[in-house]
Specification:
This protein is of the alpha/beta class and about 300 residues long. It has three domains: about 10-95, Arc Repressor Mutant, subunit A, CATH 1.10.10; about 95-165 and about 270-295, D-Maltodextrin-Binding Protein, domain 2 (3-Layer(aba) Sandwich), CATH 3.40.190.10; about 170-270, 3-Layer(aba) Sandwich (D-Maltodextrin-Binding Protein, domain 2), CATH 3.40.190. It has twelve helices and eleven strands. Strands 3, 4, 5, 6, 9, 10 and 11 form a seven-stranded mixed β-sheet that branches. A hairpin with a 2-residue loop joins strand 1 and strand 2. Belongs to the LysR transcriptional regulatory family. Keywords: DNA-binding, Transcription, Transcription regulation. InterPro entries: LysR_HTH_N, LysR_subst-bd, WH-like_DNA-bd_sf, WH_DNA-bd_sf. This is LysR family transcriptional regulator. It comes from Rhodococcus gannanensis.
Length: about 300
C-alpha cells in the first residue's frame, strides 16, 4: 500500500504549537506566514482523518490527538536532524579529501613541489594523486573520477573549464654520440618530421603537441613508443634515437652534457600547462585552493 508521507515542516509546526501554545507563535518561530501554516495543518488533518487543533478566537491549541502526534513528531524530527548531521559530516569528509589527476610531465617535475606547499598550507586535506597521460586525465575529470586535473595538451575538451598554471617548452634531444649532436646548422622541420623518433604514446600532451606541430609534414613511423617521459629520456640516453621532450624532463641531463639539444629552424614548441575541472566555472573547495596556490607561485 502506497503511503503519503507528511511534510517535516508541518510536523515542526505541530511541535511548535505544543511548545509555545499557539499556531501563530509556532509559525513565527518556523519562519512561516500564518495563512500558510493554517493550510499546512489542515492538509495534515485531512491526511490523518482527525482534527489536530482546537481553533478558538483567542488562538489554537492541540486536541488530544494532536498532542499524541506532536509527541511522535518530536521523535521523527529528532531522527531527521540526525540524518542531516550525518549528511553534513559526509560532506565535510569529502571536502577534506582531494583527488588530483596529473599528466606524466606535470606529476614528475611540478606536482611534488605544488603538493608540498599545499600540504603545509592545508594540512588537514588528504590528497590522492593519479598519474595518467593528458587525455586520460581529462577523461577522469569529465567522469568525476578526480576533482581537478593538470594537463599539458594544447587543447581542453569541451565541457571542462581550465586555467593556465605553468609553461614549458619541448626540445629535440639526442645523446652526444648522435650525428645531430655535431651539426653546425639547425635541422629543418621537414628533416625532423622524416626522422623516426622515440615518442610518447598517443594521448600524452607531449605527443599531441608534437603531432599538431608537424601535421603538415610527411611523418616517419615512430622508432619506439613509450608510456612515460622518463622512459623516453632513458632511451635517448642509451643511444636509441632522438626524441622531443619537455625542458622540465631533460634540463638536468642537458646541463650535465648527457644530452644535447638540437635546434630546429622555425619550430616553436612552447606550451601552456593547465588545470582542468568540471563546471561550475569557479572551482571551490580544496581543488580550488590548490589551483590558486599553484597560480600564485608560478614562475
Amino acid at each position: 500500500m502506497h503511503r503519503t508521507w507528511p511534510d517535516l515542516d508541518v510536523l515542526e509546526l505541530l511541535v511548535g504549537v505544543d511548545d509555545h501554545g499557539s499556531l501563530s507563535a509556532a509559525a513565527r518561530i518556523a519562519g512561516m506566514a500564518q495563512p500558510n501554516a493554517s493550510r499546512a495543518i489542515k492538509r495534515l488533518e485531512a491526511q490523518v482523518g482527525t482534527p489536530l487543533l482546537q481553533r478558538k478566537p483567542t488562538g489554537s491549541t492541540l486536541t488530544p490527538e494532536g498532542t499524541v502526534l506532536a509527541h511522535w513528531s518530536r521523535r521523527v524530527l529528532g531522527e531527521a536532524g540526525q540524518l542531516l548531521d550525518v549528511a553534513a559530516g559526509m560532506r565535510e569528509k569529502r571536502a577534506a579529501e582531494l583527488t588530483v589527476g596529473a599528466s606524466m610531465t606535470v606529476a614528475e617535475h611540478l606536482m611534488p613541489a605544488w603538493l608540498g606547499r599545499f600540504r603545509r598550507t592545508v594540512p588537514a586535506v588528504t590528497i590522492h594523486l593519479q598519474v595518467r597521460n593528458s587525455m586520460q586525465v581529462c577523461e577522469d575529470v569529465t567522469a568525476g573520477a578526480c576533482d581537478v586535473g593538470f594537463v599539458e595538451s594544447p587543447t581542453v575538451p569541451r565541457g571542462l573549464h581550465s586555467v593556465a598554471v605553468a609553461h614549458d617548452r619541448l626540445v629535440v634531444v639526442v645523446d652526444p654520440g648522435h650525428p645531430w649532436a655535431r651539426r653546425r646548422r639547425p635541422l629543418s622541420i621537414a628533416e625532423l618530421a622524416a626522422t623516426p623518433l622515440v615518442v610518447r604514446e598517443p594521448g600524452s600532451g607531449t605527443r599531441t603537441t608534437l603531432d599538431v606541430a608537424l601535421h603538415e609534414y610527411d611523418r616517419a613511423a615512430p622508432l619506439l613508443e613509450l608510456g612515460s617521459g622518463a622512459a623516453v629520456r632513458t632511451s635517448v640516453l642509451s643511444g636509441v634515437g632522438p626524441a622531443v621532450l619537455s625542458t622540465l624532463a631533460v634540463s638536468a641531463q642537458v646541463d650535465s652534457g648527457e644530452l644535447r639539444v638540437v635546434e630546429v629552424d622555425g619550430l616553436h614548441l612552447d606550451r601552456t600547462l593547465r588545470a582542468v575541472w568540471r563546471p561550475p566555472r569557479q572551482l571551490e573547495g580544496p581543488g580550488g585552493d590548490l589551483v590558486r596556490l599553484v597560480r600564485r607561485n608560478r614562475t
